[in-house]
Structure formats: C-alpha cells, structure tokens
Design goal:
The structure is a single chain. This protein is of the alpha+beta class. The protein is built from 6 helices and 12 strands. 25% of the residues lie in helices and 34% in strands. Strands 1-2-3-4-5-12-6-11-10-9-8-7 form a 12-stranded mixed β-sheet, with helices on both faces.
C-alpha cells in the first residue's frame, strides 16, 4: 500500500486521501477508511470513476483528488432517482452527458404480440451459437461505422463488459443475426444474467424499416421464454426514438433512468 497522502491537503478536516492501488484511493480519518474512490476504463475507452463515501465532506475530498490524478474527461453513472448523489457530482463540476432509460419487457410471445412473427422475405434468423464469427464481425463493423458517421456510437447502449482492446465483439456466443443471401444484415446481443439483458439490436442502414429488428427481438425473446425467463431488460438512449418504439411496441415499460455525467 502506498500511504503517501495525496498532494492536496484536506480542506479543514482530518481526512487524508491515500492512493492504495492503481486508480484506487481511500479516504482515511485517523486510519479509519471512511470512503473509497475507483477508476476504470470501459470497453469504449472512456474512463469512469465511482465513489463510496459516508459523508458529503469525504465525498468532496475524494472527488476533488481525482482530476489531478487522472486524465480528463472523466465519466460517472448515477441513478437519476438518486437526486442527492447526482447533486454531489454536479457540485464537483461534472455535467450531464447522456440519459439512458431502462426497460423491462416480457418474453412470452402472447404478451409481446410477437407470436408467429416471421422475418422479412429473404431473411433468415441465425441463432446464437451458430453464427459465423467472421461475418458477425463484418456486420458489427459496418453498423458501427454507419452509426458513428451519423448520430455517433455514444448514442447506443453503454458497453460495460470487458473485452480485448480494439475488439468490438464482446462474446460471439451472445449474438443472433439476421442473414441475407450473401451477408448478415443485423444482429442482436443478449447478455445472460439473473435477468437477461438485450444489450444491442442493430440493422444495416440500407436494410432498416423492413421489420428485421422486430424479427430479431421476437427470436431473442422467444428463446429466453423457452429457457424459463419471464422477463428481460434493455437500455435505450433517450434520443433513440426508434429503439424506444420497438420496445414499447412489445409491451416493454420504462422503470428507471441512468445519467452519465462528465468532467472535461
């Protein structure tokens, strides 16, 4: 443990900020840990910070230490319903960057209205585990380039699972795809957890408005239903009206929202 105090002195109290590991700090009050801060890079390269502190003054000490120790911009995520925590970050100079709505949706085709839905003519749904990885990476790269050239990839759901640098496919086994005669046209990623999460639904720009995204969602939800899962979750950027419409069209409901805050 590096017990050398952070170079900025505590502001009028006895709390000492100590770096205990790479990108980890403790707030010490007479050798008692009264708060912790942690920083990590997300797969998209952005640096996110989190703070666990018992008192406002300790939070302020920890958040005040971070800009001098880390490169900006710095990001953090808060539950928008937690107004007190949000205000703490805003008071420290962070500003609102994006809002992401969390939806829960049923998997039962009778509840979603997707029972019996077929893909568009000439399109086949390839289940997870049977996808050609090379073709998957091709469609993923093409869609990312299309999104980045328009609204920007930051408008897509945040990717938080670790993966090798430069690798945009988190885990090939998580993806089902919509296949055309000579290439993949779209993809859906399902992250399996206690409540499965629809991590991404995306279709090539030239193939949109054909019902491919809806067919992919129908396939994924039906697969989850057969596996015994009654509900799934999904996150949608507040500006993505098409994704919100896709989810509400299958009886999904918004249950919460998260704010990403940034310090530049």
């Amino acid at each position: 443990m590096n017990t050398e105090p952070f170079t900025s002195a505590p502001r009028g109290n006895d709390v000492v900020i100590t770096r205990v590991a790479d990108r980890q700090w403790h707030a010490l009050d007479d050798d008692l840990v009264v708060g912790r801060a942690h920083a990590e890079h997300r797969p998209d390269g952005r640096l996110f910070v989190s703070i666990d502190a018992w008192h406002d003054a300790v939070f302020d000490e920890l958040v005040g230490a971070l800009p001098a120790a880390l490169p900006t911009p710095l990001y953090t995520v808060v539950d928008e319903a937690d107004a007190e925590l949000t205000d703490r970050w805003l008071r420290a100079g962070f500003t609102r960057w994006r809002r992401e709505w969390e939806y829960v949706l049923p998997t039962d085709p009778q509840a979603t209205g997707l029972g019996g839905l077929l893909p568009p003519r000439g399109v086949t749904i390839v289940p997870a585990g049977q996808v050609d990885e090379r073709a998957l990476r091709d469609v993923d790269s093409a869609i990312r380039a299309e999104v980045e050239a328009t609204v920007g990839w930051h408008s897509m759901p945040a990717e938080v699972r670790p993966r090798p640098a430069g690798d945009t496919i988190i885990d090939p086994s998580m993806y089902a795809v919509a296949a055309g005669p000579d290439r993949y046209l779209g993809l859906i990623r399902v992250v399996h957890a206690r409540r499965p999460r629809i991590g991404l639904v995306a279709v090539r720009a030239g193939e949109q408005r054909r019902g491919i995204a809806r067919a992919l969602l129908a396939h994924a939800l039906a697969t989850l239903h057969r596996s015994g899962h009654t509900m799934a979750s999904a996150e949608v950027h507040e500006s993505d009206r098409a994704a919100s419409a896709l989810l509400t069209g299958v009886n999904a409901r918004a249950v919460s929202s998260n704010l990403e805050l940034v310090l530049r």
